[in-house]
Amino acid sequence: MKTILIEGGRPVDGSITLGGNKNAVLPMIVAAILTRDEVVLHNVPDILDVRQMLKIAEALGVNVRHEQDTVVLCAKELCETTLPPALCRSIRTSLLFAGPLVARCGEAKLAPPGGDVIGRRRLDGHFYGLQKLGVKIDATPYAFHFHREKRLRGAEIFLDEASVTATEHLLLTAVLAQGTTVIRNAACEPHITQLAQLLNAMGAKISGIESNILVVEGVSRLHGAEMTIGSDHVEAASFLSLCAVTGGQLELRGDIQPHHYWMTRRVFERFGLHFTLRPNLIMMKVHHSPRLVKDLGNAIPVIADGPWPQFPSDMMSCMIVVATQTKGTVLFFEKMFESRLYFVDKLVAMGANAVVCDPHRVVVSGGAKLHGIEMSSPDIRAGMAMVVAAACAKGVSTIYNAEMIYRGYSNLIPKLNALGINAKEIES
After folding, report:
1. What is the pLDDT of residue 115?
2. Are 346 and 372 in contact (CB under 8 A)?
3. Predicted confidence (pLDDT) per residue in 361-383, tens digit
4. What is the C-alpha to C-alpha distance for residues 108 and 54, in angstroms, rounded to an integer?
5. Right CATH for 22-228 from 3.65.10.10, 3.30.300.30, 3.90.79.10, 3.30.70.100
6. Annotated catalytic sites, by residue?
7. 3-class DSSP assignment, residue 145
8. Are 205 and 176 in contact (CB under 8 A)?
9. CA dist., res. 416 & res. 235, Å (int)
10. How far apart are CA 70 and CA 42, in angstroms?
């Protein structure tokens, strides 16, 4: 087990390069099994979730080669349709292999997927959409069997929630289905766009990219392609939060698309925080304590998440930490996951003024002086929020189960050190 020790109280000062988008690369690994040719991915982050997905691909017969941050995948010798149960239980996106395996090989067998424990994470959108495309599903609490009797056929699909992974799954499956598929109320996050761009580079015909209506004209085969993965906007927001609570100055570099950050900038502005946003560069300087900008009529502001381009759920945890250091009171409304806010108890133990109203809402009154404690990371984003809180707390904080954070953040300790944060990893 990995443990992170952080001695707080130092301002951020430095520059780092952001890693590739975690939620883009995971479905791209799956896309490689749709063709016998090589798929080359650049700017692949070295995180545990990527390693797990690559292990699954290799278990299916995919040849995987690493060249620094480039991964080359070739599924010419794809020979297996049963996923290792232990790997399925380690990562939620293991489910994404189901539809593409059915499309190419006729069936797929896997255990129910795992992942972060942040509340119920429905699979209904996956099952509904795959069945509309002609996939037969036999499901028990312990195993899923997906199969088809003939070639999959395009369909009109309406998702009752704009699920990112369900949208990715249906795109990956529909590209080889006969006829046209229309996905309405599709998720349209940047990682959906990048996946669609890769599939089109492989010969797919997807239109409506960056909208919530995606149209897929099925093709008989796909070929190889090469893709550079854009920078992770959630990682960027996490480090901006770090700068907000410690003060100092920060530069973030990488493949940064400004329109991916408009809502993030809007939320930071509500905390009286500002950053410069340019293609491939974000700069932030904080030399005073943040102060909340109240809503019209002196009302308490509400920060709520929602489907893109609203504020992403994955950014909520770190922003709650920012609120503990901001003068004023704010209500956070986490609409999507009923267990995401439970980590706030750890912030209260550190000295934060926060009240968890129910599983979806927490009120934070800022300006608290935090102190270091021992805590354990329950999920990726809460774990990173603990890192941010530890960096501004007095004394040393110990964060157990650091592997959970490493599932989504590459080279975390070196990046923290490069910014002047006193952090180190130990075995526990």
Report:
1. 53
2. no
3. 999 999 999 999 999 999 999 99
4. 17
5. 3.65.10.10
6. 116
7. strand
8. no
9. 12
10. 4
